[in-house]
Structure formats: structure tokens, C-alpha cells
Amino acid sequence: MVFTLPELPYKHDALEPYIDEKTMHLHHEGHHQAYVNNLNKALENYPVWQEKSLYDLLEHLDDLPADIQTAVRNNAGGNYNHTLLWKTFTPPKDFKDPQIFEVGQAIINQWGSFERFQADFNSAAAARFGSGFAWLIVDDNKKLQIISTPNQDNPIMLNQFPLFGMDVWEHAYYLKYNNRRPEYIQACWNILNWEYINERYLTSQK
Ligand code: MN3
Fold first, then answer.
1. How far away, in angstroms, is 134 Cα from ligand 1 center?
2. 198 exposed, middle or buried (CB, 10 Å; 0-12, 13-18, 19+)?
3. Alpha helix segments (H runs only) across the chain
């Protein structure tokens, strides 16, 4: 086993009441673990590729052997997206106002207000048909953009650097929010880890 499931950076109930404990267990030990297992399986016969980081795999999907491209796309994607997701959340008691960070100021400069950025992001997340993610990315000119991707695709595959993603797969919210995706999206704004998102913005650290 080359890739392993990372620990959550907080307890499973730490994101309550916005994300419930049961969803966190299923999402982390169920879904995320499955992406890890399936990635290891896909790379079983390709030791050279096992040496790569998730980021490298996603950046170079086209160079992979054809028979494992789809499996790696889905499962390195799923693995990276969820590892990032857990880090970009924080317990609500530790929440910090994004506007105290450089990234918050950059958002305001670009969108005019934080509320307008949120409204645009919410629209992108709500409009993603089926399963996928909405993202805040930063490009090479330090310009911010909101994009959305299907399934477990992500901005790295598009040569863009993700600051944070919102998971709008039903598995992320259905137990608590049922079919009310906009309510779940709204809840996520209370638990974003802007300190970490800002660090990503400043360093573009892979
Ligand atoms: Mn998910």
C-alpha cells in the first residue's frame, strides 16, 4: 500500500452543527478510504508511478499507461480532493474572518465585496449537475477564479492551483440536508479554514 488515508485534522464531530458526525465517518472512512484503496489497486503493476505524489499524478495524467488513466483520474482525484477538503475546513469555534487575510482582500478587490464572491461561488456550486466540486483557484498571474469540475476532476488537471473546493456530491450532505444542496453550501461558509486557504494563496505550495 503506497497511498494511505490521512487522519482528519479534528474530531469527526468537530464540524457540527454544519456537517454532522455520521456524514464525516462515512465520508472519511467510507468514500475517501475507497479512493485510496482504488488508487493503490490501479498502480499495483506500475511501481514507477507509485513514487509520484498525488499532485504529480494529476498533473501528468496523459503520460500514464492508457489502461489506468481513468482509474487514476478518478481515484488520485478523489484522494487529493478529500485530503484538501479536510484541511480547508476548521471547527466553527476556530473560524476566522477571511477579510483579515491577504486572500480575503484579494477576493474583495476582484469581486467588489465578499458577499458578491459568495453569491457567485454558491451559484457555481448549485449549478454543478450531478456530482463534482466548485473551486476557488488562483492562476499564474495571481488572479482568482471560480470554476466547477465534474466527478473527482480538479483544477490541477487544468494546470490551475486550487485554494479550496466545495464537495457537492450527494454523499457530502444527503444524510443531513437531503436534497437541499444550497442549504449545505451555505453551511460550509461557517467552517472554512481561511488561515490555511491564505497560506495556499501566498505560497501555491503543492
Ligand atoms: Mn466527497
1. 12
2. buried
3. 21-25, 33-42, 47-50, 54-59, 69-87, 102-111, 114-127, 174-177, 181-188, 194-203
If you measure from the C-alpha of residue 170 to the centroid of ligand 1, how many angstroms do you get, rounded to a whole number?
Answer: 8
Centre of ligand 1 from the C-alpha of residue 112, in Å: 31
Produce one character per residue of 68-91: b if its CB has 16 or more CB atoms within 10 Å, e if not: beeebbbbbbbbbbbbbbbbbbbb
- Centre of ligand 1 to C-alpha 85, Å, is 8
> Tens place of pLDDT for every residue, the chain, 206 residues?
699 999 999 999 999 999 999 999 999 999 999 999 999 999 999 999 999 999 999 999 999 999 999 999 999 999 999 999 999 999 999 999 999 999 999 999 999 999 999 999 999 999 999 999 999 999 888 899 999 999 999 999 999 999 999 999 999 999 999 999 999 999 999 999 999 999 999 998 66
Distance 19 CA to ligand 1 centre (A): 12
